[in-house]
Specification:
The complex is a heterodimer of chains A (1115) and B (397). Chain A has 1115 residues and is an alpha/beta fold. Chain A is built from 39 helices and 39 strands. Chain A is 38% helix and 19% strand. In chain A, the strands form seven sheets. Chain A has a seven-stranded antiparallel sheet with strand order 14-13-10-11-12-15-16, sandwiched between helices. In chain A, strands 17-18-21-20-19-22-23 form a seven-stranded mixed sheet, with helices on both faces. In chain A, helix 1 (25-39) crosses helix 11, helix 14 packs across helix 16 and helix 18 (505-511) packs across helix 19. Chain A starts with 8 loop residues before the first strand and ends with a helix. With 397 residues, chain B is of the alpha/beta class. Chain B folds into two domains: 6-150, 3-Layer(bba) Sandwich (Glucose Oxidase, domain 1); 160-396, Rossmann fold (3-Layer(aba) Sandwich), CATH 3.40.50. Helices cover 22% and strands 32% of the residues of chain B. In chain B, strands 12, 13, 14, 15, 16, 17, 18, 19, 20, 21 and 22 form an eleven-stranded mixed sheet that branches. A seven-stranded mixed beta barrel of chain B has the order 1-2-10-7-4-3-11. In chain B, strands 5-8 form a two-stranded parallel ribbon. In chain B, strand 21 and strand 22 (348-351) form a beta hairpin. The radius of gyration of chain B is 21 Å and the shape is globular. Classes of the chains: A alpha/beta (1115), B alpha/beta (397). Chains A and B meet through strand 11, helix 9 and helix 16 of A and helix 3 and strand 17 of B.
């Protein structure tokens, strides 16, 4: 069935900002979709508010709208573009929800737009739990299953304890109890004993307004599997990949360590899952495209239960695509426009069709990356709510190899088993007890339990059902460990066995202290010629020849690296997403690949993050899916360099480390020392910018100001510095990204407390103590510098929140909204001096604080920053591409002549009519709860907490800010109650914004102190008591918690730690109730501008291509 | 860690792979073939079609679920040798009754582990299936190579008698009995009579040497030609039997080797594929409906049909044969190899792949319904009042 000819224009909906549970995998899928549709001659319009995506690069669509993904704005886009159809199955739940809302609002019908890839009924059938249970039962009937009702967890609605007991007598314990119609799952729980049952069900019955609880059979501890399926409109279905969770049921699949393909199923069981998956897919009625189905399998009797299905491309499909080489999103886009699977060629073999099921001759392991350290108070137990912020994937020729590679890809303190000592005094009993609560790094605990003498059966039991096969694999590693420790010498054979099991040089060094650490192991290994080979991911287990060089390392006989005599450049990616290092860096890496490819280099990408565009096999000329550790990168370099030279070429002419964030930057010096040609800013220059003393000298030479500062390795030293420069001070460890461990300290006791908590202080890792500039305006600059010292200012961003809030969490505007021309001249002078003083060859990010008209340098990072994609989109200049070219020797003058950079001018001086772009951060507070089940604090500070960002762009700040808020949090309110409670020092600044809100018709509710000030200024407001003050009726917390408020404005009283406790209840209630909560005065002022813009109701949408044409013309 | 004895694998072109002894210690020879299935090693090992073949598993982990009492496709392991990369130390499954390696050792199957199976597979893909030897008792590649080159070739091998049942046996229908089928056992898999039984078919499985009269003496309504090992060009007796069945218009269904026999009976030739199809992910196009099935394959030979252009949906394309019009009903989308034939004027059809799966997906299970419908239609045809109408086209639905 060939392509439909009636689809000439398709609107693709993206997934918006990166949040927990919805990350850059949707940039990967959306980018593929846009590419495919355009190559089919279809006009593509795109909506996505996330500027850090590749898909929103103007060349990927005909009309790119960086606008909020809300029904309101998408309707504006539809009205303007009038597409034939909408493709919403590649933009995650956000896109799907928006499409459903547009359908329900009659918008699709009004404009005659067809929803392709999934129909509304199918979406509803997949989403509605009860409906889905019926669907599964019907699918079971279709398959002729004996008891179709057994294909879902058995359950019954009960109205009394008698009914509950009768139900449990049938289902057996444990059971899950879910009270009906309580907020946020209040009163839910799992009953393991009759006592639990009496307590939880009893409470549940009374908590439920209708005195009703659902008693459901527990599948906790069952084996968990997922299948990724694809269906075309001819009803052909293929299973692309099976995924097995090592963590059994009870841990969200996004938080589980997973393996592909499934390791512990017989063919008979696997085919049952496949039959059932296909039957459910057909019954749900997914038209075309990808879909994901989750199963639980009872390890005792093999009973299969269908848990859920997603009728769209998901995080798991991105993982499955990378794991198999089968590009699900790309194929889904083709299926959506009418092709059938047999008509689409398999990209990798070219000769065979996409209508087949990939066969793997390797094992893939994915491990989630968490960020609990960023959210003190958040409960780190892993549950069915996803909490991880990123993941790494690795491939190996066996499970342990893939597992060890994935573990060392995490960039956590431990880089695989045995790389950190066991906790002091830990016993087997402690270890087994710890296993009972699923936690980050649980496999380390598994290993320790086995090593301390637990049997596989004991560990299987304690871990709640990890399959013995996986445990035995870890047990085998422990046996190998003993052998390595006991061997008289580490000979070639043993070394080879260790490497085949996936152990890193660093792990081996930990076991053989005499080998002079990792470097010693590597020297020995190279001398004995034990080096990895590189195999190819080819979808077919070598049955057909592969044309796509997508490689992974292993210790086997034969390598498949095809020699090439072209000059090669390695680009090191950024590894698993985490807070502070996410999609923005992948964006820059992808841009480097694009720029260097078109400049004639053979580009070689190294990365281990399956969610990204950079790890799409058709992004770079060659892809190595490898951990970003020194050992793994060095071996890739060696393989590419030596094969290139053997082919008569120059080999690797450069390795780009400055675009992937801190990860590759941290490897730069060691790689250079090992003879690897690092291009761009040299490791020495990087050090110059990062090492406080040296950087201070650079500033001093150029006569630039910086806040007074010092370095301390003890409390006494820190106190001396603080006394000298005066409080408040900003304290932080050296060499960190995302403000990790950074705090503003106002007094001696807090300083003492901070130093006490900072465990890793040493002369090599001192604590930096800076004078903190209160109430300063923070400014962010991205700039380029070439070998001639020529500087191009990419953009100057003015933060909306005052200095002290991490730049990644604060919103900012470009061009700056209040800075004077003289400030910009000063910013340029400073930036040029730093770029030249440090010796930057490529990108530089500088953060400044402007206080009382004086500019201070806060810090400089000689690498791509998080804001590079935002600046590139706001100014129409591809900074990362230019940086990559500069790294390989191009000058800014040449790039101007080429047209990659504008012929004249730069982002430091934007045209007067340039649109205003606002970047807003998206924060994950809603995802976390304390152990007691309460919301966590949403207060911002110098430590970064946001997971992603959006861009709002419009002709003026108010409109742009309103868009940024709509995109990030749902729209700013235009009517209703506003709750205000501000700190004393903020009361003056707050009067005018609150008055304006009152004038706009909002009802103001305030706590006593704030209310008094407002009343004195003639602002009518209702006074409400704080939650700890006695009284009748609602208090502030219950008012907010009850959802009776449209906006919360709460700035913290006091300073330091006490600021955190003040208003915590208020802010966490706002987070729990999902109400926008503003915690700074400038934030409130910006919100007023945004609210006014919304009330005027004149929101317009404009494609980036248009904006860029205007900007380019002005240049 | 358990230390394994060193072992080597030598191909007839001299390429040698080091490894370690797996299963039984000893020496073995056969035709090296690779299987790309990621599940179903127990079914693969016990599939008689792998007789005299040394199977290379591309899936790196083998033995993870142990062995159980239910998944054997015949009474024993048939592979001549087994090549894996990472054997499981522990089999984990609720149905498992033992470990795979113990079973291999008990049945005397010589294997080799720790092999770069991907390199070996690529070699076989590029050079074609070839003879191979595995030894864990003689580690000299040269002396093993000499013995490899003395071992028998697969081309020209007549192996049916070696794998066939010695005595006839019956697999009863499940539920109401509808038809009786006589299966000529050229290396049948247990799941074939099992799938037939669920359609109310009682299957009499007879030795490969049986005559058509012996088959029909069971009261059979139809004849089934089973899968099995060897070169179809040698199977003259089964071909003659099939020709007689076609002549008598006895409903006929063939799978794999049986398909090649029916192909020969219809007058087509057979040929050896470079490295064959062995796996459970092969896309087959039904050229009548245009639907794609993901199917289980295990064949090194195929039917040669002149003038077939694969991959296209051609519901009306027919070829004239001695037994009337024949359609190429199925082709493999990977390489356009003929995967199914259907006679239009006589009640016979075949598929080169395995609708009984085991191991593999169940997409093609409907073919057993089609066989039942063919028998049923035939039964109707035999009613005098309705006359004969071979081209009823039931199976075209």
């Amino acid at each position: 069935m060939p392509k439909r000819t009636d689809l000439k224009h398709i609107l693709v909906i993206g997934s918006g900002p990166i949040v927990i549970g919805q990350a850059c995998e949707f940039d990967y899928s959306g980018t593929q979709a846009c590419r495919v549709l355009r190559s089919e001659g279809i006009r593509v319009s795109l909506v996505n508010s996330n500027p850090a995506t590749i898909m929103t690069d103007p060349e990927f669509a005909d009309a790119t709208y960086v606008e909020p993904i809300t029904p309101e704005f998408v309707e504006l886009v539809i009205a303007k573009e009038r597409p034939d159809a909408i493709l919403a199955t590649l933009g995650g739940q956000t896109a799907l929800n928006t499409a459903v809302a547009l359908h329900e609002g009659g918008v699709l019908e009004k404009y005659g737009v067809e929803l392709i890839g999934a129909n509304i009924d199918a979406i509803n059938r997949g989403e509605d739990r009860q409906l889905f249970k019926e669907i599964v039962a019907k699918a079971g009937v279709r398959l002729g299953v004996d008891d179709p009702t057994a294909l879902v967890p058995r359950s019954r609605v009960c109205h009394s304890m008698d009914e509950v007991e009768a139900t449990v007598a049938e289902l057996g314990l444990p059971v899950v109890i879910r009270p009906s119609f309580t907020m946020g799952g209040l009163g839910s729980g799992m009953a393991h004993t009759p006592e639990d049952l009496a307590r939880i069900a009893g409470d549940g019955l009374s908590a439920s307004p209708v005195h009703e609880v659902l008693i459901e059979e527990s599948v906790l501890g069952w084996k968990e599997y997922e299948l990724e399926l694809m269906r075309d409109r001819h009803d052909n279905v293929v299973v692309v990949c099976s995924i097995e969770n090592i963590d059994p049921m009870g841990v969200h699949t996004g938080d589980s360590v997973t393996v592909a393909p499934a390791m512990t199923l017989t063919d008979r069981e696997y085919q049952h899952l496949r039959d059932l998956g296909i039957a459910v897919l057909r019954e749900v009625g997914v038209d075309t495209g990808g879909c994901n189905i989750q199963f639980a399998v009872n390890p005792v009797d093999g009973r299969i239960v269908v848990i859920e299905m997603n009728p769209r491309v998901s995080r798991s499909s991105a993982l499955a695509s990378k794991a198999t080489g089968f590009p699900i999103a790309k194929i889904a886009a083709k299926l959506a426009i009418g092709y059938t699977l047999d008509e689409i060629p398999n990209d990798i073999t070219l000769k065979t069709p996409a209508a087949f099921e990939p066969s793997l001759d390797y094992v893939v392991v994915k491990i989630p990356r968490f960020a609990f350290e960023k959210f003190p108070g958040a409960d780190p137990e892993l549950t069915t709510t996803m909490k991880s912020v990123g993941e790494a994937m690795s491939l190996g020729r066996n499970f342990t190899e893939a597992l060890n590679k994935a573990m060392r890809s995490m960039e956590t303190k431990a880089a695989g088993f045995w790389t950190v000592p066991d906790p002091a005094g830990v016993t087997l009993a402690d270890t087994l007890a710890a296993l009972r609560i699923p936690h980050d790094g649980r496999l380390y605990t598994v290993e320790r339990a086995l090593r301390l003498g637990a049997s596989i059966a004991e560990v299987a039991e304690a871990s709640g059902g990890i399959d013995p096969w996986f445990l035995d694999q870890i047990a085998a590693l422990i046996e190998l460990r003993t052998e390595i420790v006991d061997a008289p010498v580490l000979d070639a054979d043993l070394l080879r066995v260790a490497k085949r099991a996936g152990l890193s040089d660093r792990q081996l060094a930990a076991l053989r202290p005499e080998l002079a650490a990792e470097d010693g192991v590597r020297t020995l290994r190279h001398r004995l010629d034990v080096r990895p080979v590189y195999k190819t991911v080819d979808t077919c287990a070598a049955e057909f020849e592969a044309t796509t060089p997508y490689h992974y390392s292993t210790y086997d006989l034969e390598t498949e690296v095809v020699p090439s005599n072209r000059p090669k450049v390695l680009i090191l990616g950024s590894g698993p997403n985490r807070i502070g290092q996410g999609i923005e860096f992948d964006y820059s890496c992808v841009h480097a690949v694009q720029a260097l490819r078109s400049a004639g280099y053979e580009t070689v990408m190294v990365n281990c993050n399956p969610e990204t565009v950079s790890t799409d096999y058709d992004t770079a000329d060659r892809l190595y899916f490898e951990p970003l550790t020194f050992e793994d990168v060095l071996e890739v370099w060696h393989a590419e360099d030596s094969s290139g030279r053997a082919a008569g070429g120059p080999g690797v002419v450069g390795v780009v480390v400055q675009l992937g964030g801190q990860t590759p930057l941290g490897l730069a010096q060691r790689l250079k020392n090992a003879g690897v040609p690092i291009v761009g800013t040299s490791p020495e220059s990087i050090h110059l910018a990062e090492e406080r003393g040296a950087f201070g000298a650079v500033l001093a030479r150029a006569g630039l100001r910086a806040p007074a500062h010092g370095m301390a390795t003890s409390y006494d030293e820190a106190k001396t510095i603080a006394d000298e420069i005066g409080y408040p001070v900003l304290v932080r460890p050296s060499y960190v990204l995302g403000g990790r461990g950074m705090e503003i300290v106002y007094d001696d006791p807090t300083l003492r407390d901070y130093i006490g908590r900072a465990t890793d202080i040493s002369p090599d890792h001192p604590v930096l103590v800076d004078r903190f500039l209160d109430d300063a305006i923070e400014i962010d600059v991205d700039a380029l510098c070439d070998a001639d010292g020529e500087v191009y200012i990419g953009g100057v961003m003015e933060h909306i929140e005052e200095a002290g809030i991490h730049s990644g969490d604060s919103s900012c505007a470009l061009p700056p909204i209040t800075l004077a021309g003289s400030h910009l001249v000063e910013v340029r002078r400073y930036t040029e001096a730093i770029a030249r003083g440090v010796g930057v060859r490529g990108l530089l990010n500088v953060q400044y604080a402007l206080k009382d008209d004086v500019l201070y340098v806060l810090e400089a990072n000689p690498r791509a920053s998080r804001t590079v994609p935002f600046v590139s989109k706001a100014t129409a200049v591809p900074l990362a591409k230019a940086a990559a070219r500069i790294a390989l020797g191009a000058s800014i003058a040449e790039l101007r002549a080429e047209g990659l950079l504008p012929a004249t001018g730069d982002g430091g001086t934007m045209p007067a009519d340039a649109p205003v772009a606002v970047k807003e951060a998206v924060l994950p507070f809603k995802r976390f709860r304390t152990r007691a089940g309460k919301g966590i604090d949403s207060l911002l500070g110098p430590e970064m907490k946001s997971t992603g960002e959006v861009m709002g762009i419009d002709t003026n700040f108010g409109h742009a800010f309103a868009k940024s808020q709509s995109a990030a949090y749902g729209s700013l309110p235009t009517a209703g109650k506003i709750f205000v409670s501000v700190a004393n020092r903020d009361k003056r600044g707050m009067i005018f914004p609150i008055k304006r809100l009152a004038d706009l018709g909002f009802e103001i509710v305030a706590t006593a102190g704030t209310a008094e000030v407002l009343r004195r200024h003639g602002i009518a407001c209702e006074q409400i008591r704080k939650h700890y003050q006695a009284g009748e009726g609602d208090d502030a917390v219950s008012l907010i918690g009850g959802g009776h408020v449209a906006l919360v404005i709460n700035t913290p009283q006091g300073s330091g730690a006490s600021a955190r406790s003040d208003g915590y209840e208020i802010r966490s209630a706002a987070v729990t109730a999902d109400i926008p909560c503003i915690t700074t005065v400038p934030g409130a002022a910006a919100a007023v501008m945004g609210i006014e813009a919304r009330i005027r109701g004149d929101m317009q949408v404009r494609p980036l291509q248009d904006l860029h044409a205007t900007l380019r013309a002005a240049q | 860690m358990v230390k394994r004895r060193p072992a080597i694998l030598v191909l007839e072109d001299g390429r040698t792979f080091p490894g370690e002894a797996y299963g039984s210690v000893g020496e073995t020879f056969g035709e090296a073939v690779f299987n790309t299935g990621m599940t179903g090693y127990q079914e693969t090992l016990t599939d008689p079609s792998y007789h005299r073949q040394v199977v290379v598993q591309t899936a790196p982990h083998i033995g993870n679920t142990g062995v159980n009492g239910e998944d054997d496709e015949s009474g024993r392991i048939w592979v001549a040798g087994y090549v894996v990369r990472d054997p499981a130390r522990l089999g984990s499954n609720w149905r498992a009754t033992g470990g795979l390696e113990d079973r291999l050792a008990t049945e005397g199957v010589v294997g080799i582990s720790g092999v770069d199976t991907r390199a070996l597979t690529r070699h076989l893909r590029d050079r074609g299936a070839m003879r191979v030897g595995i030894s864990s008792i003689d580690n000299d590649p040269q002396s093993l190579l000499t013995r490899v080159r003395q071992s028998p070739q697969m081309v020209g091998a007549d192996l049916s008698a070696e794998v066939s049942t010695a005595e006839p046996y019956v697999v009863e229908a499940v539920g109401e009995h509808r038809f009786t089928v006589a299966a000529l056992d050229l290396g049948i898999k247990r799941n074939v009579p099992r799938r037939l039984a669920t359609r109310g078919v009682t299957t009499h499985v007879l030795p490969a040497s049986s005559s058509i009269d012996q088959l029909l003496a069971t009261g059979a309504d139809a004849i089934f030609l089973s899968p099995g090992p060897g070169d179809p060009a040698t199977a003259d007796a089964p071909v003659a039997l099939a020709r007689e069945a076609l002549r008598r218009e006895v409903p006929l269904f063939g799978i794999c080797f049986g398909s090649q026999i029916l192909g020969r009976a219809l007058g087509f030739g057979t040929y050896k594929l470079g490295y064959g199809h062995r796996g459970i992910n092969q896309p087959v196009l039904d050229r009548v409906t245009g639907k794609v099935e993901v199917t289980s394959h295990n064949h090194g030979f195929a039917v040669q049909v002149p003038g077939v252009v694969g991959g296209a949906v051609v519901p009306d394309q027919v070829i004239d044969t001695e037994f009337g019009r024949v359609q190429v009903s199925h082709v493999c989308l990977n390489d356009n190899v003929v995967e199914g034939l259907r006679a239009v004027d006589v009640p016979a059809f075949t598929v080169q792949y395995h609708p009984e799966a085991a191991a593999g997906p169940h997409d093609a299970d409907y073919l057993f319904d089609r066989f039942a419908e063919l028998i049923e239609g035939r039964a109707l045809d035999q009613r005098p009042s309705e006359g004969r109408n071979h081209s009823k086209g039931r199976s075209n639905a």
